[in-house]
Amino acid sequence: MKFLRAILLAGLGLLPIVGQAAGDNQGKPNAGANQTILDTAGHYPIPGSYAATILGTPPQLRPDLPKQVDSRRLALEVLPGLSKPEVFFYDEGLHATFAKQDKKAPLIFLIAGTGSNDLAGNLDTMMKAFHQAGFHVVTLPSPTHPNFIISASRSHIPGDQHDDAEDLYAVMEAAMKEVQSEIEVSNFYLAGYSLGGTNAAFVAKLDEQRKRFNFQKVLLINPAVNVYESVKRIEATLDGIPGGPKKIGNFFNSMVEKFTQTYRQGTHTAFDDNFLYSVVTSHELTQEEKGGLIGLSFRINSAGMIFASDVMTNGGYVVPKNRIIGSTDNLDDYFRVSVHLSFLQYFDEYFYPYFQAKRPGLTKAQLIDAQSLKNIENYLKSSTKIGAVTNENDFILSAEERDYLKSLFGDRTKIYPVGGHLGNLAFKDNVAYMLNFFKPAGDK
Predict the structure, then answer these.
(1) What residues contact residue 261 under an 8 Å CB cut-off, 6+ apart?
(2) pLDDT of residue 96
(3) Which phi and psi (to 5°) does residue 53 adopt?
(4) What pLDDT, on the 0 to 100 scale, is given for residue 276?
(5) Residue 150 and residue 166: Cα distance in Å, rounded?
(6) CA-CA distance, 434 to 437, in Å (whole number)?
(7) Would you state the pLDDT for residue 262?
(8) pLDDT value of residue 285
């Protein structure tokens, strides 16, 4: 949700750095917000599912990680000879971030969540933690990120777990080809969060057949069990905003106005994490508004995905068929159309027709089931190297799906009481558990 927070802060960007604060508070962090954060005796401090999802982990409760890691960004040619439309003139190849050790070490691939690239905040935290622990690290964008859709997806239509796993595997192979002369690798590992966690399960299964990496351990962090059902729950967060999903633009404007008024009337000296923490955990926002902010962030990510896919396939879904968009053309209208399309509309009107044409006789129910961990249940149950981490109040899962994860992975399932969806990923205890999961049994 850092993307959402950046949008909200940008909306407040015209405010002065120092607002209505006065007296001894001027130039100091908001004491009330910090006190709330620190009074938690080492536990993750945000009990609400939506609030945790929006805010993440307060800086004071994160592990001590380096501010910077010596890394470089790769630009991989995954699909040789690929022709890209002019509007994507800036795309120079599939981006991945690589951080190496100066000695032989294990290498871990990390897969981002929905709509995120290889520099996403959660990936950055994980990269720093694993690199500090002695791993080579390669971070990968989600197959739903425009860069991946343009430069690494063979169909340019993201969302099918089996196809996306093949594409991710090809990216991993390309990354290794790029860096193999620089490093020695002892073993390979794999992790992903949110949709990236679900992706990781399917990639692990594919690797059992290809055996290029022979992953020693795989961790799914806040994965969706059934992607379609999880997306329905995320989309449902927009149902509670005034006017419903059709009024998403009005909702965004009203949220910027509410945050602006709160800032001007409060004692905050900067529109930073403490300010957002104070607003979201107060009574300033209703539960429906918090959910709406999550749905808004998801829609913005989905809009980029839909636009990139439509242009790459000349699908005629958002951009009229055969229309050539130049590098200087205004894209505002396409964005407005795309952001008003739900992922479920994308599935029904674009995704399913493509796969139905490709696989005659395929039903919608079959395609939905193919995106579920249950589709590869036999493999997941038989593999002792895969584990999962989630939260009791992660709203993308039902109670039955959390129980399913327990039945699937047994004592390799870790379920925290609170944290929402990914809110506690950077919490110091969670990071310690994540690192410990990948240690050889004798080193724990």
Answers:
(1) none
(2) 98
(3) -60, -40
(4) 66
(5) 15
(6) 5
(7) 67
(8) 82
The structure tokens 């620190």 sit at 38
Beta bridge partners of 192: 111, 220
Which pLDDT score, from 0 to 100, does residue 19 have? 28
Q: 3-class SS at 416?
A: strand
pLDDT of residue 39: 46
- Tokens describing residue 47: 């009990």
Return the axis-axis angle of helices 248-265 and 287-313, rounded to nearest 10°. 130
220 backbone dihedrals φ, ψ, rounded to 5°: -100, 115
In one-letter notation, the amino acid at residue 89 is F
Q: For 282-393, where are the alpha helices, taking DSSP H only?
A: 287-313, 332-339, 343-346, 352-358, 364-370, 377-382
Pair of tokens at residue 63: 């592990």
Q: Which residue has the tokens 């949709």?
A: 195
Residue at 438: amino acid letter: F
Enumerate residue ranges in the chain where pLDDT < 70.
Answer: 1-42, 262-283, 440-444
Separation between Cα atoms, residue 97 and residue 409, nearest integer Å: 30
Beta pairing class for 136-140 and 185-193: unpaired
Contact indicator for 235, 245 with CB cutoff of 8 Å: yes
In this prediction, residue 278 carries a pLDDT of: 65
Domains of the chain: 71-227+377-443 (3.40.50.1820)
Q: What is the pTM of this model?
A: 0.89
Phi, psi of 314 (to 5 degrees): 50, 45
Tokens of 393: 């109040």
H or E element that contains 208: helix 195-210
Handedness of CA 22, 24, 29, 32 (dihedral sign): negative
pLDDT per residue as tens digits for the range 375-391: 999 999 999 999 999 99
Q: Where are the beta strands (DSSP E) in 61-113?
A: 71-76, 94-99, 105-111
